[in-house]
Amino acid sequence: MSLLSQLMNAFQILPGVGPKSAQRICFNLLQKNKDNAIKLADILKEACEKIGECQRCRTLTENDLCRICLSDKRNPSQLCIIETPADLMQIEQATDYSGTYFVLHGRLSPIDGLGPNELGFPKLIDILSKEPIKEVIVATNSTLEGQTTAQYIAQMCQKVDIKTTGLARGVPLGGELEYVDANTIAHAFGSREEY
Amino acid sequence: MSLLSQLMNAFQILPGVGPKSAQRICFNLLQKNKDNAIKLADILKEACEKIGECQRCRTLTENDLCRICLSDKRNPSQLCIIETPADLMQIEQATDYSGTYFVLHGRLSPIDGLGPNELGFPKLIDILSKEPIKEVIVATNSTLEGQTTAQYIAQMCQKVDIKTTGLARGVPLGGELEYVDANTIAHAFGSREEY
């Protein structure tokens, strides 16, 4: 197989990239962007070799501890639990949350072989017992599995007497009711707030 | 800047990849696909270093001559001229054309600094004079610049008495008239064919 065909196949591991996009990417890089493509190859390889999980919060980092866990400006009494490093990034960008994080890398899903150990619960229990945490914010996805995971964590926290909160649920800001799903409407209607 | 941020920036050189897709790609590769990502990095680097232009037809290849120019099964009396290696691949996949190719890597566009020399016309003239070519099929894009380029090539071929043809133009197969642009309709109407 020619090197070009190998490269087109290799690019198809990217999410959302099929044969046509892979072809377009290859020609673009090889014809117009070789220098940047070589840089991309070098950084990608270095990242694959060096980036692993933060030893405390399990987000992705090239060091033993991530930037947030190392910072002395974060509030040590709040811990936010999320499913993925992408969720962590979303919360960092969208809110002024100043506590620390813990990344599950998934949600409880026995059928996929994801149990408490795979989600790092032993490490989480360790953090809850050693750190001065007063509030755990469980920001798992608003899916069935995400909410089951949240319930599980909430029970864990209750045992050690730590307050647990979850994200408010209701209609998204700027959303038109016509396009909001029925479950969300029903929940938002039932939990309506007084002006 | 963290290695992760560098990687996210690096991925944004890909056509059609913005900050959000780059983030998604990075997390996907680092969390689930590290082995394939390392392979991609290796192949990408090797491709950037080894892939260049075929010395005869100017398409992309890792060797001095591409697979098609090396083959003794191609018809040496037909030469198809296209703008890009992607166009070459399209014609190879869609047709049973068995002649050889010549890739311009662009179209005549003085404003972009693309003149006859940049498009390899000296090499093209050399091919036309040395090879037993009886028909040149000019398959440049059906744009103003592509057609200007085609005219230029047709004149060049006339001087050395070689027949020049272009792709038929009209309504696309399977296209609904309602969505075909007015220029195409006008051309197709004027050049209507008898059943």
Secondary-structure element series of chain A:
HHHEEHEHEHEHEH
Instruction: Tell me the overall shape of chain A.
Output: globular
Tell me the name of the CATH class of the largest domain in chain A.
Alpha Beta
Could you estimate the helical fraction of the residues of chain A in percent? 40-55%
Number of helices of chain A: 8
Q: Main β-sheet of chain A: number of strands, strand sense, barrel status?
A: 4 strands, parallel
| Multimerization state | homodimer
The separation of the N and C termini of chain A measures: 67 Å
Lateral strand order in the biggest sheet of chain A: 4-3-5-6
| Structural class determined from secondary elements of chain A | alpha/beta
Count structural domains of chain A: 2
Would you give an account of this structure?
The structure is a homodimer of 195-residue chains. By secondary structure, chain A is of the alpha/beta class. In chain A, 46% of the residues lie in helices and 11% in strands. The first copy, chain A, has eight helices and six strands. Chain A has helices at residues 3-11, 19-32, 34-50, 67-70, 85-94, 121-130, 144-159, 182-190; strands at residues 52-53, 60-61, 78-82, 100-103, 135-138, 163-166. In chain A, the strands form two sheets. Chain A has a four-stranded parallel beta sheet. In chain A, strands 1-2 form a two-stranded antiparallel sheet. The N and C termini of chain A lie far apart (67 Å). The relative contact order of chain A is 0.08. Chains A and B meet through helix 1, helix 2, helix 3, strand 2 and helix 5 of A and helix 1, helix 2, helix 3, strand 2 and helix 5 of B.
